[in-house]
Write a structure and sequence with these properties.
The complex is a heterodimer of chains A (882) and B (325).
Chain A: H1 3-20, E1 24-27, E2 31-33, E3 40-46, E4 53-60, E5 66-68, E6 74-76, E7 79-83, E8 91-101, E9 104-115, E10 122-128, E11 131-133, E12 139-145, E13 155-159, E14 166-169, E15 173-175, E16 178-186, E17 199-200, E18 202-206, E19 226-228, E20 234-240, E21 243-244, E22 251-257, E23 268-272, E24 279-281, E25 285-287, E26 292-297, E27 307-314, E28 327-335, E29 344-347, E30 352-354, E31 358-364, E32 370-373, E33 376-377, E34 386-392, E35 397-406, E36 419-425, E37 438-443, E38 451-458, E39 463-465, E40 470-474, E41 478-481, E42 487-489, E43 492-497, H2 500-513, E44 517-520, E45 525-527, E46 536-540, E47 542-545, E48 549-554, E49 558-560, E50 564-571, E51 579-588, E52 593-602, E53 609-612, E54 615-619, E55 624-630, E56 637-646, E57 657-664, E58 669-674, E59 682-684, E60 689-695, E61 703-712, E62 722-727, E63 735-740, E64 751-761, E65 766-775, E66 783-789, E67 801-807, E68 813-819, E69 824-830, E70 841-846, E71 859-867, E72 870-871, E73 875-879
Parallel strand pairs in A: 2-9, 11-19, 21-28, 30-36, 37-47, 49-57, 59-65
Antiparallel strand pairs in A: 1-3, 3-7, 4-5, 4-8, 6-7, 8-9, 10-12, 12-16, 13-14, 13-18, 15-16, 17-19, 20-22, 22-26, 23-24, 23-27, 25-26, 27-28, 29-31, 31-34, 32-33, 32-35, 35-36, 37-38, 38-43, 39-45, 40-41, 40-44, 42-43, 44-46, 48-50, 50-55, 51-52, 51-56, 53-54, 54-55, 56-57, 58-60, 60-63, 61-62, ...
Chain B: H1 2-16, H2 26-29, H3 34-38, H4 52-55, E1 67-75, E2 79-89, E3 94-111, E4 117-136, E5 139-151, E6 161-175, E7 179-186, E8 189-193, E9 198-201, E10 204-211, E11 221-230, E12 236-249, E13 252-265, H5 275-282, E14 284-294, E15 300-310, E16 316-324
The chains are: A mainly beta (882), B mainly beta (325).
């Protein structure tokens, strides 16, 4: 029978009952769960006549209705009983009892039987969040069963990975609208020994019952809870290298953890110097599956990190957000960027000349430092603070040994201050070389009777005469053993042969043979290293006549273009009489001849004025001439004039006489004056020390004089100038002149002071510069005289600018440097007790780096000093990198 | 519209790939307007007139008239800063603008390495902006092309000048009057000097929020806050409040009172200095007053004054004059 027919039938029956009177049927139970087999159901019915019939149909889980056999129903006195059939399949069974009268249903009742003999099963386990850690606690465990279960009686047992510890959860929550789902909370604090629980736990779910008390089977197959209650620990840390010196370009600081970290969790590592308190943040770089962190230091940090450094690990956490305990670790990283002093030499004669092939140099050094000579490591006797070096000097040469040291962390000493040791190794015998021996006919004084000869011996090095062993001869039979002292002039050894007999003999040789030879015994001379000269036999000497010119000097050695050079030429009184072939020439310092002339001059009877090409010679008397030469537009520079005269009787060559003079076109320049001077006025003390540096167009032309004039800057005070004029002719290059007012007893008056500096070179050209200073005492009010030099400066080429000011207070002096938008780019502080703080003039240095250590961009920067409540003016510093 | 969006996205992608530099272009970090200065600095969501192109070009999209402004920081003994700009709506949704900012620093003392005084010289720094914005209400985007030039006239021992180009991308989102959000991204760019040396200026991202609580009245009170992140620099914050106590009375269009705090570093980042020193040196407080005469829809003039209190450097005045028609 289909549903439609049944429904029609039911409606018809209902209508019949409604119109025919009370026909009822009631079963004693309307609900049964898992009834035992053959359970009897009773019921009552009521109807006018006992002509009844029952039908029973059932449906399972809402399925189709099925009629069952009703013959087993026992009816008695309006009661009936019926045995429930054996139901073996789980499900919800609806039994419909119908009272049928004349095949028409008059009433019905329902019996619901639930058969559930299946044990509940866990459908899924979920964790919110997905793991339990110190940071993620508590965790909500959500159990979903395949049927409604009771929250009571069930339990979850968590067991750690090693099986040594367990935790039981029995408290579960259930929402009324979701009876298949249970939840429980577990927190980190529930674990009595958290250290045992890191890792994946095992999970056992048991004893949960469904609504018909079917108890689940123990379920150990569900996804277990990940528990991580262990904060990451540092297992090792090291820096590579473990020292940082001024040349170290990179230090990698490696920290290893016992577990992987989460790089996305903000945290950091700081380098901390416990002594200075300085801190530097690292940018941690994770590697090795995030179990290792590298912190890289590429620039040498500030001085405040010198020495041993610690590091602070803060905020880093593992993948389960367990944060590492904040702690300061002692690291092995030592930062030492201070250059050691230059090593010293304590034994060994510097600048010595020796014939030895090796010498020993010894000295002191910094402890643990390595000494280098000419860039190579010294492997000599090194111990503690002492060192020695066996220097090999096998060749004839000038040896220079430059010693530096590198301290134990690799900082080299300043190469510009390296100690130098010089030695001249000379293993060779001195020889007559380059210029042959020369025998010069000359006179000892102004009388013609004082004729003598001078023997000139030119060696290849400086020598010392040993007293004997030099001979003159003509042929093989005539010889003079010279018993004279030799004088030294550089590599020249000369002796005046003035004994009457010798003079006569030599004159005879010269006149008759025009030839004289020189012989020398071995060891007649020794060089400065003690090497004896070799024996020389019969070396032909050049015979010369002494120059008759005694002096050739300029009256005006320093000239300007257009001037006339005036030079005195004086002859020796013993000059022969008669004509001389007189030669004059002019050369540049580079040897280029620009003028030469020659003429015969009769000193005794000739005219007073003799024209020499473009110049003129004026005879002053029989022995003195004056040479005039118009410079015209001669270029600035150094020039050499040469004069020579030849005796027409004695045909030997004469030695030319030279003279230097200078042509200048520029006045001397004032390179610098310290204290620095500006038109605006700098502050100076009452007794300052002035140091002035000059430059000259030609370095050989000296500054002749310098003059300082001190005068009150305001005219109305009518104070006469104090003039200090100093002869500068003895000042060497570079031309630096120092005038110390205190040493010279000059005390300046307070207030504005005008100082005029005048310098004049030897050509009479002068430069004048006026400076205005503010003279102050030992103290100043506030911060004064704030300026920097050089300005601009090139930070890219390691140039620094010195920022200087006057300040006499005791509050710390703070330097702030901003860009033009007001952003701080540099800060420095000078505290009492720091070097230089006791001086009235305070100085800072800025290398042009910003707060991160990088060189700032080109531009203008504003600097201000602050000391307590006092503030300086604002200084404009320009960085010009290029 | 698609072309505009693609063009802006293209410029953004290109600009993010450019090289990062070392220092901030200081000229472009100076608040260009007395209103901005009195509110603690630049805020990328606050429309203040033609000055907007220097702060966030997308702000132009909220203009409904031609705006002209001129600003000046008359710190004559230190530097003379000025900015001038004009913005013009060309359609309902398209806006163009142009402007120039500059600083002229005179009387810089020149010394050589020996401390010898050589004289004085000057420094000029100028930047020219060309701007475009387009509105996709409630959103708007904008872009700047800027040309920067620097030089040192009058120096005795050196001569140098530099040129460079930069790019800005800005965005604005306005949720009615209650909340506005804006940001600007400035690419890194190089300033090339005569001698082949070049300075690199880092990327900069700044975001601003303006809140006008409806329970107070959107026209009466505004709260502004902005964050600025320059590459490798500490994160910074500016904030300010603006109150309009008088509006459309006695022929006065508006009177505005402003207070601000600016350049407040929120972190130390890699700076090798104490945090307290950094904040003390950089942060400033500001106050200002604005008076406008005219009407919103015809023409008007506005004069704004700002006073900047600095802890280390000298306090500054700034005056801005604006016209609209």
């Amino acid at each position: 029978m289909n549903m439609f027919k049944k429904t029609i039938l039911f409606l018809v029956g209902f209508a019949v009952m409604a119109f025919a009177g009370d026909y009822t049927v009631k079963v004693s139970k309307h609900y049964m769960a898992n009834p035992p087999a053959n359970t009897e159901i009773s019921g009552t019915y009521d109807l006018p006549a006992d002509t009844i019939a029952f039908t029973i149909e059932y449906q399972k889980d809402g399925g189709a209705w099925t009629a069952i056999d009703t013959s087993a129903i026992n009816k008695l006195n309006k009661t009936f009983s019926w045995s429930v059939p054996q139901l073996s399949t789980d499900g919800t069974y609806i039994y419909l009892f119908r009272l049928m009268v004349n095949s028409v249903a008059r009433d019905s009742d329902l019996l619901k039987i639930v058969i559930d003999k299946t044990k509940p099963k866990v459908a899924s386990v979920a964790y919110q969040p997905g793991y339990l850690s110190n940071a993620q606690s508590p965790v909500i465990i959500k159990l979903e069963f395949d049927e409604p279960v009771s929250p009571d009686g069930g339990k979850i047992v968590l067991e750690n990975a090693s099986g040594t510890d367990s935790l039981q959860i029995t408290d579960f929550q259930q929402k009324p609208d979701s009876l298949t789902v249970l939840s429980a909370s577990i927190a980190a604090s529930d674990f009595s020994t958290p250290a045992n629980w890191t890792g994946t736990t095992s999970l056992t779910i048991s004893q949960f019952k469904d609504t018909l008390d079917n108890v689940m089977d123990v379920d150990a197959s569900q996804t277990a809870l990940v528990v991580d209650l262990a904060a990451p620990q540092i297992t090792s840390f090291a820096s590579q290298p473990d020292t940082m010196n001024s040349k170290t370009d990179k230090v990698t600081f490696t920290i290893q953890f016992d577990q992987a970290l989460d790089p996305s969790i903000a945290g950091g590592i700081k380098l901390i110097n416990k002594i200075s308190g300085a801190q530097l943040n690292f940018n941690p770089q994770f590697k090795d599956q995030n179990k290792t962190v590298d912190c890289i230091l590429t620039t040498v940090p500030a001085d405040s990190f010198e020495g041993k450094n610690s590091f602070l690990v803060k905020g880093l956490a593992d993948v389960h957000k367990n944060k590492i305990s904040e702690r300061l670790y002692e690291s092995s990283l030592i930062i030492d960027t201070k250059a050691p002093a230059t090593p010293t030499i304590t034994s060994g004669n510097n600048n010595q000349i020796t014939s030895k092939s090796s010498i020993t140099i010894a000295g002191k050094k910094e402890k643990k430092a390595t000494v280098f000579v000419n860039g190579a490591k010294v492997h000599g006797n090194i111990s503690g603070t002492s060192w020695s070096y066996e220097a090999s000097i096998p060749l004839d040469s000038f040896y220079v040994f430059t010693f530096t040291q590198v301290d134990s962390v690799g900082n080299p000493s300043d190469p510009s201050k390296a100690v130098k040791f010089s030695v001249l190794a000379d293993h060779s015998a001195p020889q007559l070389k380059y210029i042959p021996p020369r025998l010069v006919r000359t006179w000892k004084d102004s009388t013609a009777d004082s004729l003598c000869y001078r023997l000139d011996l030119y060696f290849d090095e400086q020598v010392v005469y040993q007293g004997q062993g030099v001979h003159l001869s003509v042929g093989e039979s005539e010889q003079i053993n010279l018993q004279y002292n030799f004088n030294s002039q550089g590599v020249l050894q000369y002796a005046y042969l003035d004994k009457a007999g010798d003079v006569e003999t030599i004159s005879t040789w010269v006149e008759e043979h025009r030839s004289v030879t020189v012989s020398m015994d071995e060891g007649a001379f020794t060089d400065l290293a003690g090497n004896p000269s070799a024996a020389i036999a019969n070396k032909e000497a050049v015979i010369q006549n002494e120059n008759y010119i005694a002096e050739f000097t300029a009256q005006n050695k320093y000239l300007q273009s257009g001037d006339t050079l005036l030079a005195d030429i004086s002859f020796k009184p013993n000059r022969p009489s008669g004509n001389f072939l007189f030669q004059l020439s002019l050369q540049t310092a580079e040897g280029k001849t620009i003028f030469t002339t020659s003429n015969l001059v009769d000193l005794t009877n000739g005219p007073v004025n003799i024209a020499f090409d473009k110049s003129k010679v004026t005879k002053k008397d029989n022995l003195n001439l004056l040479w005039s030469y118009d410079l015209g537009d001669l270029e600035a520079g150094k020039y050499i004039a040469t004069v020579s005269a030849q005796d027409p009787v004695f045909e030997a060559l004469t030695v030319p006489v030279t003279m230097e003079f200078y042509v200048l076109s520029e006045a001397p320049q004032i390179v610098s004056i310290k204290p620095a001077g500006t038109p605006e006025g700098h502050y100076i003390s009452k007794q300052p020390d002035f140091v002035v540096e000059f430059s000259s167009q030609n370095p050989e032309v000296r500054i002749q004089s310098a003059k300082l004039e001190f005068q009150k800057a305001t005219d109305y005070q009518h104070i006469s100038a104090t003039v200090i004029s100093v002869n500068m002719t003895e000042t060497d290059n570079p031309f630096i002149w120092e005038y110390n007012c205190e040493e010279n007893g000059l005390k300046l008056a307070d207030g504005s002071q005008q100082i005029t500096l005048t310098v004049e070179n030897q050509a009479g050209m002068s430069t004048k510069q006026t400076y205005v200073y503010n003279v102050t005492g030992e103290t100043v009010k506030g911060i004064k005289d704030f300026f920097n030099y050089p300005n601009p400066f090139n930070a890219l080429s390691a140039e620094r600018t010195i920022i200087t000011s006057l300040y006499s207070g005791t509050s710390p002096l703070e330097l702030y440097i901003f860009d033009i938008s007001g952003r701080l780019v540099h800060y420095d502080k000078l505290k009492e007790g720091a070097p230089g703080f006791g001086s009235l003039r305070k100085e800072f240095q800025w290398d042009g780096t910003g707060l991160t250590g990088k060189i700032v961009a080109n531009g203008v920067y504003f600097a201000r000093l602050k000391a307590g409540s006092a503030k300086s003016d604002i200084l404009k510093i320009v960085v010009n990198n290029h | 519209m698609k072309k505009t969006v693609f063009l802006l996205l293209f410029m953004l992608v290109v600009s993010t790939g450019l090289k990062a530099g070392d220092e901030v272009a200081a000229l472009l970090s100076i608040p260009p307007d007395a209103v901005a200065l009195s509110l603690g600095g630049q805020n990328q969501a606050h429309t203040i007139g033609a000055t907007d192109i220097f702060i966030n070009p997308a702000l132009m999209s909220r203009h409904d008239r031609v705006d002209v402004q001129f600003s000046n920081i008359p710190s004559l003994n230190l530097m003379n800063y000025y900015s001038a700009s004009v913005t013009v709506p060309i359609t309902m949704d398209d806006f163009v603008g142009a402007g120039v900012v500059g600083v002229y620093i005179t009387d810089i003392q020149e010394y050589d390495a020996n401390g010898m005084h050589l004289g004085t010289f000057s420094n000029y720094q100028n930047a020219v902006f060309l701007s475009y914005a387009r509105s996709f209400f409630p959103f708007a985007v904008g872009a700047n092309l800027k040309y920067v030039r620097m030089g040192y006239p009058g120096a005795k021992q050196f001569e140098n000048s530099a040129n460079g180009f930069g790019l800005d991308i800005g965005m604005l989102y306005a949720f009615q009057k209650i909340l506005k959000f804006g940001f600007i991204y400035q690419n890194s760019f190089d300033l090339y000097w005569k001698n082949d040396y070049h300075d690199g200026f880092p990327k900069r991202l700044a975001m601003g929020v303006v809140v006008s609580p409806s329970w107070i009245s959107t026209d009466f009170f505004k709260f502004l806050i902005s964050l600025e992140q320059v590459e490798q620099r500490p994160l910074r914050m500016n904030s300010g409040i603006e109150i309009t106590p008088l509006k459309d009375k006695m022929r006065i269009h508006e009177v505005k009172v402003r207070l601000g705090m600016g350049d407040f570093d929120l972190e130390l980042r890699d700076a090798q200095i104490g945090y307290g020193t950094l904040v003390t040196a950089n942060k400033f407080f500001s106050a200002g007053l604005g008076l406008s005469y005219g009407s919103t829809d015809s023409w008007g003039i506005e004069v704004d004054y700002s006073y900047r209190l600095m802890s280390i450097l000298d306090n500054q005045h700034m005056i801005t004059t604006k016209f609209w028609f």
